[in-house]
């Protein structure tokens, strides 16, 4: 899994503009983070949000029939994504009726993309439960995360590193990663982590309690703040 940043971007064909980037990064809804700071959010085009479930390679946890799904767009080398991962695990454990979908958006470095390819290989080979476990393991560690580190962590799941590397370098994984990153760009989710809850995009990590409040509001009134 070797590529430099220029080659990676050219192969994936990820542009700098998307269908929703013209929207501002203000507050459509007045919501606060766990620290009491305003959370940047924006209304997203429903037709684009409706395309998310069709993406290949999303790692899901929670019931498939859940009425509410929270999507996280993340980068394995985003420092805020480490805190977010711990909170995602906490939310999944405390809200068994919530479905969480993890979507790769490795915009920070080629190393992030390498790790994402390993995660997608695990998801393709072993399914979402194994990919969810790898997500928690990688983001609970310290230091930068690259393909080699991700392969070492994934080896504990029982799949030879050579096999995972082959899957990660496949056309299927390349296209899945390209589609996931394109979705983030189309939605204007330029920060990591970012979230999609209903037709609202959240930029940055607001914290577990704040997310729980927004999820509860979504269930009451179909928006993140009632």
List its traits.
13% strand; 226 residues; alpha+beta
What does this structure look like?
This is DsbA family protein. Residues 33-182 form the Thioredoxin domain. It holds the Pfam family DSBA. The chain is of the alpha+beta class and 226 residues long. The protein has one domain: Glutaredoxin, CATH 3.40.30.10. The protein has 9 helices and 6 strands. Strands 1-6-5-3-4-2 form a 6-stranded mixed beta sheet, with helices on both faces. Helix 4 (110-126) packs antiparallel against helix 5 (128-140) and helix 4 (110-126) crosses helix 8. The radius of gyration is 17 Å and the shape is globular. 41% of the residues are buried.
Order of helices and strands: HEHEEHEHHHHHEEH
Low-confidence stretches: 1-24
Give the domain tally: 1
Classified in CATH, the superfamily is: Glutaredoxin
User: What is the helical fraction, as a range of percent?
Assistant: 40-55%
Task: Label the structural class.
Answer: alpha+beta
CATH topology: Glutaredoxin
- Largest sheet: number of strands, sense, barrel closure: 6 strands, mixed
Q: Which CATH architecture?
A: 3-Layer(aba) Sandwich
Helix segment tally: 9
How would you state the average pLDDT, rounded? 89
Question: Would you count the extended β strands for me?
Answer: 6
Basic shape: globular
Spatial ordering of strands, largest sheet:
1-6-5-3-4-2
Beta content comes to: 5-15%
End-to-end Cα distance = 46 Å
* Radius of gyration, taken over Cα atoms and rounded to an integer in Å: 17 Å
CATH class: Alpha Beta
């Amino acid at each position: 899994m070797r590529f430099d940043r220029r080659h990676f971007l050219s192969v994936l064909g990820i542009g700098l503009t998307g269908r929703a980037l013209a929207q501002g990064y203000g507050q459509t809804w007045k919501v606060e983070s766990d620290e009491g700071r305003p959370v940047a959010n924006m209304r997203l085009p429903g037709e684009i949000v409706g395309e998310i479930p069709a993406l290949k390679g999303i790692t899901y946890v929670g019931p498939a029939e859940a009425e509410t799904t929270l999507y996280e767009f993340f980068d394995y080398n985003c420092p805020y994504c480490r805190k977010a991962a711990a909170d995602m695990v906490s939310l999944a454990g405390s809200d068994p009726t919530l479905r969480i979908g993890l979507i790769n958006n490795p915009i920070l470095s080629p190393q992030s993309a390498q790790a994402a390819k390993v995660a997608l290989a695990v998801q393709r080979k072993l399914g979402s439960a194994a990919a969810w476990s790898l997500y928690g393991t990688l983001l609970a560690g310290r230091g930068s995360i690259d393909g080699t580190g991700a392969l070492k962590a994934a080896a504990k799941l029982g799949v030879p590193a050579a096999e995972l590397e082959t899957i990660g370098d496949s056309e299927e994984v390349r296209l899945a990663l390209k589609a996931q990153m394109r979705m983030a760009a189309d939605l204007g989710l330029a920060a990591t982590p970012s979230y999609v809850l209903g037709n609202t995009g959240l930029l940055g990590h607001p914290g577990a309690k704040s997310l729980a409040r927004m999820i509860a509001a979504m269930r009451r009134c179909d928006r993140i703040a009632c």
